[in-house]
Amino acid sequence: MQKKVKLGVIGGGFMAQAIVNGAIQTGFLNPDDVIVSEPDESKRTLFLQRGINACNDNRMICHFCDYLLLAIKPQVFPSVAEELKGEPLPVLISIMAGKTIASILQATGAKHVARIMPNLPCSVGAGMSGIDDSMLSEQDRIFTRGLFSSVGEIVEVEERLLNAVTGISGSGPAYVYLFYQSLVQAGMGQGLSETQASKLAFQTIMGGMEMLRSTGSSPEALIAAVSSKGGTTVAALNSFEADDFMGSVKRAVDAAVRRSEELSK
Ligand SMILES: NC(=O)c1ccc[n+]([C@@H]2O[C@H](COP(=O)([O-])OP(=O)(O)OC[C@H]3O[C@@H](n4cnc5c(N)ncnc54)[C@H](OP(=O)(O)O)[C@@H]3O)[C@@H](O)[C@H]2O)c1
Fold it and tell me: pLDDT, tens digit, for every residue of 169-205?
């Protein structure tokens, strides 16, 4: 490898594939702007087949990229940091859960680190990422934000709030699937087939969110629009309230945030 590329990636797993593919599909990067270091040959082949450079040499790639995305599991990080220490490191962009900017700086000797908490829907271009890139220059921020905007939406937060981001959007897709699953099961309990209940539940969630997005109305206003006094929606909402539905969601988010804080220690 002679020429410098824009983005080096350490770890070519699920998230790296999602982010690199998204950035290429949206035209933010060209395939030859990227080099991935990944030990698994079958994963390297996936990148190579798309014209993306791939190798199994973490140390080498940091010499040839402007930005280095750390997309390895947190438990693998100490050994990767050992390999990188002493190398002339470019700007690091970490998506590792629970690894703080201070710990990454200390372990690698890097000078600039951005920390991002993306989520699973990045793999279909509908992701949500919390970003702390406050250490980066304006030019480096433009790159980092462009990269994650190519796989969804971004929100800028202070690092201390990334645990909260994890509790909302990081783990959040699972909450949505749980609510969907609960609606489907309730529908089946009322005699609908699984196909019918799934279609009703899916389109209701999608339609409800699309209405929130496109009208700009508040959830309260939209709830009021579906509710008439003494009607069916009010009967259901009263039942949710009696079961402290909002309290249950809050406790679940608190549990996720606490766990994220524990994992960051
Ligand atoms: N998945 C999510 O929804 C999500 C959301 C937010 C943040 N994250 C974060 O994203 C990071 C990656 O997650 P993931 O789901 O993409 O995991 P993953 O699919 O397991 O990807 C990690 C990749 O790193 C490779 N690897 C292992 N040791 C390596 C080494 N020494 N050098 C280079 N590569 C190495 C693994 O190869 P082998 O499989 O051969 O070991 C694997 O392909 C994690 O830190 C996670 O916390 C994930």
Answer: 999 999 999 999 999 999 999 999 999 999 999 999 9
Give the C-alpha distances (Å, rounded to integers) separating 89 from 62, 135, 140, 175, 203. Answer: 6, 15, 14, 38, 47
Give CA–CA dist 70/80, Å, rounded: 9
Please list, residue by residue across 88-109, b when 16 or more beta carbons sit within 10 angstroms of its beta carbon and e when fewer do: ebbbbbbbbebbbbebbeebbe
Number of domains in the chain: 2
Please answer whether residues 167 and 256 qualify as being in contact, where contact means their C-beta atoms are separated by less than 8 angstroms.
Answer: yes
Overall average pLDDT of the 107-117 stretch: 96
pLDDT score for 123: 87
40 lines ligand 1 (CB under 6 A): yes
Answer yes or no: is the C-beta of 76 below 6 A from any ligand 1 atom.
yes
Rounded mean pLDDT of 76-99? 94
223 vs 244: CA distance, rounded Å = 17
User: Are 190 and 144 part of one and the same domain?
Assistant: no
For residue 115, list its beta bridge partners.
Answer: 94, 132
Angle at CA of residue 38, ends 124 and 132, nearest 5°: 55
Q: What percent of the chain has pLDDT over 70?
A: 99
> How do residues 207-239 score in pLDDT, each as one tens digit?
999 999 999 999 999 999 999 999 999 999 999
Q: Which amino acid is at 250?
A: K
| 198 lies in the same domain as 98 | no
Q: Whose CA is nearest to atom 44 of ligand 1?
A: 73
In a shared domain, residues 54 and 95: yes
